[in-house]
Amino acid sequence: MYLLKLLHSLGQYCMLMSRTFKRPERFKMFFRKYYKEILSLGIDSIGIVILISLFIGAVICIQIKINIQSPWMPIWVSGFTTREILLLEFSSSIMCLILAGKVGSNIASELGTMRVTQQIDALDIMGINSASYLILPKITALITIIPFLVIFSVGAGIIGAYLTAYLAHILTPSDLTLGLQHDFHQWYFWMGVIKSLFFAFIISSVSSYYGYTVKGGSIEVGRASTDAVVTSSVLILFSDMFLTQMLS
Question: Which pTM was predicted?
């Protein structure tokens, strides 16, 4: 029974995406909504991304220095480990999990409210492809802005590590700089950016599906928002495992 329900949902999702990725009827309207979605989904998320990354970078640096450092290890290990964690996992995968909660619930609740108030039905009656009109700008906007959020996250995490070095005197800034520069592979940065593009598509498309297909009233909208966040998070974790294996 659960397998049949899963296959039914997968079929509905694929049909919705086939409607979504059709040529917009009016490109002027599409770009207007695209710009609006960049502001609401991306620019409004910069603050929380920088704040979380700032503290995570500081905490990672402190934990590595206090709990892992030993006389047998170089002093710059803290900076090296902080950089690797930020580049390989936190700024791409973990940050996208956080954004799935903020952005995903926003998309699902917005579309779900439009569905239960029959605004989507009104668009369909007027002959407008409501899937492309409402969902495509969200997907393209999030895919566009996510790499920049990853860059901001990496930068904020490194700044947090430097704040630890300057204010907490856990290690010297020169030792931290040496660790951050040691054996740097540029591909690690691009790997995080590439993974974030896939995660952005998962967050936007899955959340749009749950919001677009909601049935009932306000209670179902809240349930759809929760399901969107949970499903997006699970898919991000599964895809992260396969993408890491493929890109490494």
Answer: 0.90
